[in-house]
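Key result, reporting period 2: structure in, sequence out.
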């Protein structure tokens, strides 16, 4: 078993195929769309704040804390954002890839706020719809991480040093 693993050639994509990127973008669109939806129903202004916060975090925090230090800077990473970051900010040393990882704390709310919104709606209306929304949302979050690990991290040239591999394991074959 161990020998099989060792013999398996390691594949790292220099750039990700569009089909892989689209898969991830579909998951992320569902997550982001759920956030806009739930906050719009809670209070219209909240949905604007959510959109504004997400755009700010994705165009400043993510590129400056991760993408500029990544080997996919200027290229199509598993979510395609490396290409965008390449237009926004100049590349820095890849040796510092993990240096800004703590700032990812500002990215997580994009994922977690919609769930919080769904739970607030559930507490307000005690309806099956909001129970279903919250449970399906948790499932989507989980599946998105499974997808990231298996179609992103598995083929990523940063996987050996990246602290962001889902489910606390860097052992990807
Ligand atoms: S190892 Fe996974 S989380 Fe880390 S940069 Fe690569 S794809 Fe992203």
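The corresponding designed sequence is given below.
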């Amino acid at each position: 078993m161990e020998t099989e693993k060792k013999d398996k050639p390691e594949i790292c994509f220099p750039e990700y195929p569009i089909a892989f990127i689209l898969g991830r973008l579909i998951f992320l669109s569902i997550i982001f769309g759920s956030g806009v939806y739930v906050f719009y129903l809670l209070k219209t202004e909240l949905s604007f704040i959510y959109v504004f916060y997400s755009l700010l975090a994705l165009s400043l925090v993510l590129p400056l804390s991760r993408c500029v230090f990544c080997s996919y800077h200027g290229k199509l990473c598993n979510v395609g954002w490396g290409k965008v970051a390449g237009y926004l900010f100049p590349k820095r040393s890849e040796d510092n890839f993990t240096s800004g990882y703590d700032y990812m704390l500002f990215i997580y709310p994009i994922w977690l706020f919609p769930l919080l919104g769904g739970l607030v709606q559930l507490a307000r209306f005690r309806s099956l719809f909001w129970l279903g929304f919250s449970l399906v949302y948790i499932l989507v979050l989980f599946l998105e991480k499974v997808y990231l690990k298996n179609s992103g991290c598995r083929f990523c040239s940063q996987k050996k040093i990246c602290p962001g591999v889902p489910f606390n394991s860097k052992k990807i074959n």
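The two ends are 12 Å apart (CA to CA). The mean pLDDT is 93. This case is discussed further under Risks and Mitigation.
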